[in-house]
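Minutes, project huddle
Topic: does the predicted pose make sense with coenzyme A bound?
PN asked that the exact inputs be recorded in the minutes so nobody has to dig through chat later. Recorded below.
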Amino acid sequence: MEMTLRSIADLVAGAGIRAARETGNEPEPALTQPADWPIQCTVGPGLEGAIACESRVGYVNGSKGWLVYRGYDIFELCARADYDEVCWLLLHGVLPNRRELAGFRQKIAAYRHVPGTLRLLMGFPVEKMAPMAALRLGTNLMRQEFTFCDIDPDDGENRRNAEEAGTDWVSLDDDSIAMETPPLGGARAVYEFSPVASSPRMPGSDLQSADGLEACYHLIAGIPTMAAAISRIRRGLMPIDPDPQLSLSANFLYMLTGRRPTELETRIMDICFILHADHGMNASTFACLVVASTLSDLYFSIGAGIGALNGPLHGGANEQVLYMLEDARQSVNVSQFVHDKLQKKEKVVGFGHRVYRAYDPRARVLAPLARLLSQNHAEGQSLFATAEQLEVEMVSRLGETKKIFPNVDFYSGIVYRCLGIPTDLFTCVFAASRVAGWTARTLEYLANNRIFRPRALYIGDFGRTYVPVDER
Ligand SMILES: CC(C)(COP(=O)(O)OP(=O)(O)OC[C@H]1O[C@@H](n2cnc3c(N)ncnc32)[C@H](O)[C@@H]1OP(=O)(O)O)[C@@H](O)C(=O)NCCC(=O)NCCS
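Predicted holo structure (tokens), as shared on screen:
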């Protein structure tokens, strides 16, 4: 099939029709109504089954394989919306009108310019750090944007204004190490390293606080910039300034590769970003909420989400899948490869899900997208052929019995590989899009905040007597 915008739209629509035919879409009555707190539910280890809060952001029906953002079916959004619109939708609950969308695009174009944060981040050995570790660090450093100087430090009037506003002036030369300052209130330090000419902060896009909507926009815009910069630094290249004319997904590819993506590449990246933008009360989202519930700020919350996403049982699986596919295609045959893994009681990455007992709707889109893209990519083609065989093997062995099917991470890596994204950046790409859901849910939770405090069952001893160290 020739790859065109039309063929991509058809492919997404086809995936939606198949999903509706095979599983049907129906909300579960018990899980889609406001609760009369406190409620009773059956809780398993890892809080399985526990209900943490009410939310209007998104819905996952695991038995039907159905994913909804703010009432819109995921297939509909993938077929018709772009990621910028979906970010607004997740945060505001409605699709933006033309004026709102234009204003949002202008704002995130300004916010994705984070030279001060990058300057701080580059003070660390980014090239030697795991990309997700660098991204988590960079996200926490983004809090410092509240204290960055956006004015010419040699301009006496600006300096006087800052001083009159009660702002401490801390001048840092190129080799200085950044200082931590409280993000809100009190005396603030002002750093000088923001290159004024290339830092076009728009009027009206000033960060007001570290826990409001502006900070959400800032994180949605800034995290992709950092992910792209981290990848370039690791490859010995300088970060590229964002292009304000491009959408979030197109600009991400541009900052990563240095080449403005084609319309088709942009569309595919958009779909990937949309598919990864939100997914119920998963481990990383919960981590964000737990941190936010202490009234820490959004930067710390999202940093916690990045930390949780990193694990191979969660977002880290997408990178592991690619390594596994590379191994599998070297093996004598894929059937034996799967057999050996299952014999050894190893998990096959990219399969299974805590919630889905049906085919993951995101994999329904990513699989044909990977097939389409890999037609023109020799390596992608061989990876896709291996992935298809692996899916057949896994589903025939565990589909019926354990309800194990490919998850979102199984095919996303092949798509990313075909788009020229380095494998070690895959989990950062996941984070760069999931930040939309993280921020939307965190903001929603804060509107009705209650600090998280589950309990542990103490099953240890009582009554032991302290024995001095020399007598043990
Ligand atoms: C996602 C995941 C953590 C969900 O875990 P879970 O709901 O707690 O399920 P469990 O780990 O308890 O597995 C239930 C059963 O299915 C099996 N199983 C689950 N995922 C499997 C996989 N990927 N490969 C092989 N067997 C798997 C388990 O071995 C277990 O079998 P058992 O009942 O005989 O012991 C799990 O499926 C997994 O580790 N998948 C691989 C990592 C991955 O792709 N993560 C990305 C998720 S989007």
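Observations noted during the meeting:
- The chain has a mean pLDDT of 88.
- Residues 313-314, 317, 347-354, 402, 404, 407-409 surround coenzyme A (CB under 6 Å).
No decisions taken; revisit at the next huddle.
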